[in-house]
Batch of 3 targets.
Target 1
Amino acid sequence: MFDIGFSELVLCAVVALVVFGPEKLPTLLRDIGAFRRQVSQLWQHAQHSLQKELDAATAEKPQEPRS
């Protein structure tokens, strides 16, 4: 989906190091990782809830006879 090469990653790392500085960068990366985990858990919870609702709706729906 995204075509990001090694050189682009290195450029992003250098820019982040210059902008945020070496003392704030580890904290920033830790916070970004925690945020990403929270979003991932929220997405998985939403998918699980939706699947449960679909399963319940399918189980309640009577099967129509096919001719």
Target 2
Amino acid sequence: MSMTIESLKKHPQQINKVKELYLDSFPQNERIPMNLLLWKAKKDFVDFLVIYDEDVFVGFTYLMTCNDLTYVLYLAIDNNIRSKGYGSRTLTLLKEKYPNNRIILNIEVVDEIADNYEQRLTRRKFYIRNGYKGSTLLYQDRWGLYEVLIYRGQVDKEEFYDLLKRFAGPLLFSIFKPQINLSKELEVTK
């Protein structure tokens, strides 16, 4: 496995694969319009990256950074090659790409009454195995409640708000209205 992550700008031929994987991997309510993602990716604090194993397209990730905080907004591995270590290796590559940054991401809160409880639990265990831990923050938008996981250090809600405002801009941020709340640290499932 010789994996690399590179800017989508260098690989525009992959845009259709990225779009298809994006639509397959995320529910409609969690998807920002692709045109907006592409437009925002022109900013110097946004990285829209494609993941390769040699010359084989593996997936993509979409990140934004503010100071030493990097937020993984999206990470998707091609359905045909999941469970082969690509997700863990991608997280390692991100840690290497941002060696001095705290890295955060959101996952659906593990809720025993959720229809996809097992999937949520499996996803959380995956990130915990890969060095992430609960941050004591919960992120809520109009569509769901998410636990904020972090690799390296801690994050406070003001830092997360600043990052989101930087990405969205004042108008979009006021329309989107995300809420970031403190919670007691969620128990790490082993």
Target 3
Amino acid sequence: MKINHVFVSINAADFAAQSGWWTSLIGRRWDREPMPSCHEWELTERVLFQVLDSAEGHGRATLTMHVSDLDTEIARLAKVGIAVPEPVKIEGFETLRYAEFADPEGNTVGLLDGA
């Protein structure tokens, strides 16, 4: 199987609020609106993230993003009102750190840095 793209989708009961929250987290507005019920960000060349207008499925997703500088991102998020706990070191890795929090509808968001 050759995978061309990976789509990570968050289902939202409040589509406008979730889209706004994820815009703050990612630091920019969505790249595309392929349909009225979908806002889509191109996170990398092959990874696309979507907020979907779907009240039935909200609160059941996890998105983990590996970032270059976790401390810088946590500080940036604090400025836009998103609280992220202190990162923890992941055992078995030399420098890998992880911080986990939730979006307003209960979906798990993780940020990591290091290796």
